[in-house]
Amino acid sequence: METQQKFKILFLCTANSARSLMAEAIFRQFADDSFEVTSAGTEPTQPEPEALKALSAIGVTTDGLRSKSLTEIDLPAYDYIISLCDRARTECQLLCSDDQFIAWDFPDPVTSKKTDAFRKTAHELSERIKMLLLILRKRSDRPQLFDAPNEFFKILSDPLRLQMILMLHKHGELCVCQFVDATGKSQPKVSQPKVSRHLAQLREYGLLSDRKDQRWVYYRINPALPDWMAAVIATTAEYHPQQTSQPIKDINNGCV
């Protein structure tokens, strides 16, 4: 019987002592046997005791975790390489292909003065990694998680899709009927099938995630997006507030 090829994930940061090491442990805890994950640093030191403590506090095993050098890693062998600090992104992005590299810029809990910095980092990494795994599992037949920049701008070039993304940036979560109502304020109302079709395209690309709550399906911007994509969306929303000025209907008051 042919062995199924595993998705190989690499998390990077400078010291490989906290953020990337925590991401490795959390990903391994949540993933199944179809994934292989490790972490490394450009200047590795040793695991931070507070990082290990934060992982244990959320039930993530820390057995076998060690800081590793990037020189131990065969970068082309990995499907996705995720940097967790700006320095690692700067030093390593040019060594990777565009469809292989994802940048998440997490604040360093080691240098933070906040007492809950490691706990917060562990929680935020867990949320992003859960979403990343959800999308990877849905798109197991497709080698790329996020397409090249030209595809990102292509999918946002449609005025309706762009407006819906900006609305989600402002409001956090919305359901289909809220989009239908809001997009009809300054133009002929868009039909629900058309809105649903565009939402499905955004979700398929990986820009959106969804959740079902009783009779409603809510959409939000995927928190696992590369940071540069999130920054483009945020900047566009800041400079074009008219795109999101429409009032949003309360779904408890007549949204069907």
UniProtKB/TrEMBL annotation:
Transmembrane segments: none annotated. GO terms for molecular function: DNA-binding transcription factor activity. InterPro entries: ArsR-like_HTH, HTH_ArsR_DNA-bd_dom, Ptyr_pPase, Ptyr_pPase_sf, WH-like_DNA-bd_sf, WH_DNA-bd_sf. Residues 141-245 form the HTH arsR-type domain. It comes from the Bacteria. Keywords: Arsenical resistance. Gene3D superfamilies: 3.40.50.2300, Winged helix-like DNA-binding domain superfamily/Winged helix DNA-binding domain (1.10.10.10). It holds the Pfam family HTH_5. GO terms for biological process: response to arsenic-containing substance. CDD domains: HTH_ARSR (cd00090), LMWP_ArsC (cd16345). This is ArsR family transcriptional regulator. The keyword Cell inner membrane does not apply.
